[in-house]
Design brief:
The protein is an alpha/beta fold. It has 5 helices and 5 strands; from the N terminus they run E-H-E-H-E-H-E-H-H-E. Helices cover 42% and strands 21% of the residues. Helix 1 packs parallel to helix 2 and helix 3 packs across helix 5.
């Protein structure tokens, strides 16, 4: 069984499903001490029109945080939230880890087909190769 001990754990979340899966796995693996920072990156289009308004995307981020908060706030854990904006999700996650002086990044990789990864990039692979702090790749809820 995985046991994580860290002062600050950064937890990037992409959706409500991702939040529930990641939070359940992390809750079982992390010590009650320490700070958990839930992160949602709002991807900017880099010159092209955005898919939704900033306000809509921020509301969605709050829904994502809520899906994770219930699992993680138990046992007296300190849970914070952070919304960041960037054109490259992996770079934004790494920069946030450095800004917050995180000890590690914990995430559950999302399943995606080859075509999806080709078109949208592979954030998990980018994190694995360029993360500024250690990574913990959590198992999915079924494992």
């Amino acid at each position: 069984m995985l046991s994580i001990t860290a002062d600050t754990v950064l937890v990037p979340l992409a959706s409500e499903d991702d939040a529930a899966t990641t939070a359940a796995a992390l809750s079982a693996a992390i010590d009650a001490e320490g700070r958990i920072v839930l992160l949602h990156v709002i991807e900017k289009a880099g010159g092209a029109p955005d898919k939704a308004s900033v306000e809509q995307r921020e509301l969605r981020a709050e829904e994502i945080f809520e899906a994770a908060r219930d699992h993680l706030a138990a046992d007296g854990r300190t849970v914070e939230t952070e919304i960041r904006y960037g054109t490259d999700v992996a770079d934004t996650i790494g920069a946030t880890a450095e800004d917050l002086d995180a000890d590690l990044i914990a995430f559950s990789p999302r399943e995606a087909g080859r075509l999806t990864r080709l078109l949208t990039g592979d954030t998990s692979l980018d994190l694995l190769t360029d993360a500024p702090v250690p990574l913990v790749v959590l198992p999915d809820g079924g494992e």
